[in-house]
Write a structure and sequence with these properties.
InterPro entries: MFS_dom, MFS_sugar_transport-like, MFS_trans_sf. GO terms for molecular function: transmembrane transporter activity. Keywords: Membrane, Transmembrane, Transmembrane helix. It is a multi-pass membrane protein. By secondary structure, the chain is mainly α. The chain folds into 2 domains: 450 residues, MFS general substrate transporter like domains (Growth Hormone, Chain: A, Up-down Bundle); 59 residues, no CATH class. 66% of the residues lie in helices and 2% in strands. The two termini are 38 Å apart.
């Protein structure tokens, strides 16, 4: 219908990007071409999720004890621990002059305790804990490693946005995949822990670039309500990745083998350089209309559509307008409306990530089999993501995001008085925590789509990347969040609840994006925001 309207429109009125979504008008909002491309782009999430989640298996907790020394190798580990290590795994009795027959009487002999220098680990395989002796005084090094990784994620989101908006989505995506794959392979051969965590930091920096470049490219290939479907469906492989890596981790108990197994598939994705297009909307914003025409012709052929005869004229106004705009981070604060969006989105991303990963960390302490829990944690995400599509199509973006965040916060808040009243109502607390996690999972799916639609094409990746900086800060704070339980058991949940509610309220101060065309320039986005504010004021006045 939209295509027919363009074909029959009068040539006396000069249309611009503000009047029509030229790309969607020409090739359709969604067709076979968009289906194939968005599906392929969503697959890039698989290795990224593996690299993010793999420390769960790299540093899997296993029973351990101070290593048995010469002359005691045939002593049962359980007896060895009971007799020689009265204060845990870091100290052992001085065994100078001691025989096996003396072990049961060590405590009575008042032998001096000395620090362990080597350890033995239960079970098969090899973890970074056992290989690099990350125990006792070195135990915090594993947390520092993850802090480095998450710090890389925070910085990488912003840098990737700048590079993607300047050099294009496709180039940034494929260059990042190449670097991610190389880094992943090199990590599997790291001889020292220092090298391991430095490479992990670089990997976090690169992996977030893969995720966001692929996401932005995915939603820029479709139009209308299909942006919602493409944006949310982009996250489906994340849930599947949790379940797949659980199986891989169960089969490959050596961390180096597992690291290599999750890295090598990245080389397959490099083949997609010859399949995936550059974003036609980004090319339009850059004024590169000849390249847009080539992409539109291929897409139209796949979608069995005919391009409008005057499509070249439709692209010219955007070329003229977009040539005058350059890209830099300060554009996020260039205008009043852009500043408002950016600051609110910083709070929202921080809140969603703190709540989401705060709950994931807490639910990860429920006990049970590590591999089964990993499968279940992935399975619970699937219905939440699927529900998000339905919610967005029926209720827009702003209200669903705001309400799911507030519902998550309220559910967490309800656990506080219950926990204070009785410790025998754990099933109620667990149920509320599951409700909160389900809700925030929907928020986590909705938020990137809403954010990408709020920013114009010219700075879309910078905007998403900058928001990810605040998310990265939240990620780095999550481990310390649960340390605050030492102050009071209800403090962590109270903080999570507050973030969910405050973040949800902040969402309501942003404009609805709906199913209208994506804005390409800051000027268009500014005009849309002002128009939205004026419409809201008129609606309120009419109702009063």
């Amino acid at each position: 219908m939209v295509l027919e309207k363009l074909l029959t429109m009068s040539n006396t009125k000069k249309k611009t990007a503000e009047d029509e979504d030229v790309v969607s008008t020409a090739i359709g909002e969604f067709g076979r071409w968009q289906l194939l491309m968005t599906f392929l782009l969503s697959l890039f999430n698989i290795p990224c999720t593996w690299h993010i989640f793999v420390p769960t298996f790299h540093a899997a907790e296993r029973d351990m004890w101070c290593a048995r020394t010469e002359g005691f190798m045939d002593v049962e580990p359980s007896l060895w621990k009971n007799y020689t290590q009265p204060e845990g795994l870091c100290k052992i009795y001085d065994l100078t002059g001691i025989t096996q027959d003396d072990l049961p009487y060590l405590a009575a002999k008042n032998k001096e305790l000395v620090s362990c220098t080597e350890w033995e680990f239960e079970g098969e395989g090899n973890t970074i804990i056992s290989e690099f002796d990350l125990v006792c005084d070195r135990k915090t090094l594993n947390n520092i490693s993850e802090m480095m990784f998450l710090g890389g994620v925070a910085i990488g989101g912003l840098v990737c946005g700048i590079l993607s908006d300047k050099y294009g989505r496709k180039r940034t995506l494929m260059a990042s995949v190449l670097l991610q794959t190389i880094l992943g392979v090199v990590i599997s051969f790291a001889p020292w822990f220092q090298m391991y965590f430095i490479l992990r930091a670089a990997l976090g920096f690169i992996s977030v670039s893969v995720v966001f470049s692929g996401f932005v490219l995915s939603i820029e290939l479709v139009g209308g309500n299909w942006r919602t479907v493409a944006g949310i469906s982009y996250l489906f492989p994340v849930s599947l990745s949790y379940m797949i890596i659980a199986g891989m981790g169960w089969l490959l108990r050596d961390w180096r083998q597992l690291q290599l197994a999750i890295s090598l598939p990245g080389f397959i994705f490099l083949i997609l350089w010859w399949v995936l297009p550059e974003s036609p909307r980004w090319l339009l914003a850059m004024g590169r209309t000849n390249e847009v025409m080539i992409i539109l012709q291929k897409a139209a052929k796949w979608n069995r559509k005919e391009l409008p005869v005057n499509i070249d004229k439709q692209l010219l106004p955007c070329e003229t307008e977009c040539d005058t705009e350059s890209v830099n981070v300060m554009d996020l604060f260039k205008t009043r409306q852009m500043r408002k969006k950016t600051l609110l989105l910083f709070v929202i991303w921080f809140s969603v990530y703190l709540v989401y990963y705060g709950l994931v960390l807490n639910l990860g302490n429920i006990g049970g089999d590590l591999y089964i829990n990993s499968v279940l944690s992935g399975a619970v995400e699937i219905p939440a993501v699927a529900l998000s599509i339905v919610i967005l199509l029926k209720g827009g973006r702003r209200w669903p995001l705001g309400l799911t965040m507030m519902l998550s916060g309220v559910a967490c808040a309800c656990t506080v008085p219950i926990d204070l009243v009785s410790h025998n109502l754990q099933w109620i607390i667990t149920t509320l925590a599951m409700i909160s996690r389900f809700s925030i999972s929907s928020s986590n799916a909705i938020m990137p789509v809403f954010t990408a639609e709020l920013y114009p094409t010219i700075i879309r990746n910078i905007g998403v990347g900058a928001s990810n900086v605040s998310a990265g800060i939240a990620l780095m704070l999550v481990p310390y969040l649960w340390e605050m339980a030492n102050i009071h058991q209800c403090v962590p949940m109270s903080i999570i609840a507050s973030c969910g509610i405050i973040g949800g309220i902040c969402v309501l101060f942003l404009p609805e994006t709906g199913s209208g065309p994506l804005k390409d320039t800051i000027k268009e986005a500014e005009c849309e925001s002002r128009s939205s504010d004026s419409s809201e004021i008129k609606r309120i006045n009419n109702n009063s």
